UniProtKB/TrEMBL annotation:
The lineage of its organism: Bacteria, Pseudomonadati, Planctomycetota, Planctomycetia, Pirellulales. Pfam families: N_methyl (PF07963), SBP_bac_10 (PF07596). It comes from the Bacteria. Coiled coil: none annotated. This is DUF1559 domain-containing protein. Residues 51-342 form the DUF1559 domain. PANTHER family: GENERAL SECRETION PATHWAY PROTEIN G, TYPE II SECRETION SYSTEM PROTEIN H.
Amino acid sequence: MSSMNVAGPRGVTYRSRTMRQRIRPAFTLVELLVVIAIIGVLVGLLLPAVQAAREAARAMQCGNNLKQVGLGLHNYASTYNGAFPNNGYSWPGGYPSDYSPLAKILPFLEQAQLQSLIDFDIYMGHPALADLPVGLQEAAGTRVATYECPSDVNATLHSLTMPSGASIQIAGTSYSMNQGSGLDGVFHPGNGVKSDGLCWVGAKVGFRDILDGTSNTIVFAETTIGSGLEVATPTPAMDVRSNRATANTGINATLAEAADAGGFSGIESFISGWSGDRNHYWLRGSVPSGPIINGRLTPNSPVPDMVYGSSKITAARSYHTGFAKVAMADGSVRNVTDSVDRAVWHASWTKQGNEVKTVTSE
């Protein structure tokens, strides 16, 4: 439609209403850039809030998982005359048949069908000498949602290359049972030696043995699943949440004291490489990748977990910011900050230490 001028009063000419409606001013480049900048600022403000809300939800689910694991232990104990699940049983002249406590509480987590795949009479064999028996491989490769923290970035199936060279898929866990404080020098969870904690091969520990009080004693602690990446050299240093340091000497009090005194620099000379299989194996407890932990290192310690054979110095670890979760023997779940006092932390791992302060009292 062509434009049309209309004469108004006193000779003033107006454009027709049709033409006035068709003329629309456009955005200038400056205005467009300002709008884009404002949107960018809003997105920048919104994304951290969304991520924080998602992490809060994941942390809440993690706490619920630990709660369920703790209640599963309570129900197990109610069934077995107050006894806690242990780390398997010794085997004459061989490596212990180390069925983990997590394998034993499955029916109390609505996982009876999964436990039906486990024949506890099968000898598991030495992990460095014998393949996992075929009858246990399906169970070992089954993920259990309750055993995995939603924030754990490596919560997935991982490959296990067995001594024969065959490879199978195994499932891990973000939660480990309390072997002890590590202050008593017991670092191997499978040698049948009693510790100041709750779980080892052949352990016969129950509620009656926790003289410090069930609300003051950790029974399960959060820890992270390994990335699967193996590094055969001490450098570069790896993320301590996804890798453990392989020690070039046996795990003992001297090494632990070096970590206490010097942090990472104190144990750096003892590192020969890095293993990525931490907590890959919920089925087996004594193997290096099994879910048994000591509390020698404080939560999310910058000092890496150290492993030599099946002996370990470990820490509770998580992908939550500034804390790791623990389940107490009374069934409660607590967040323990990375800055927790070392003595208070260690006191929470002992069952008969007679300590006054634990993570519950902080």
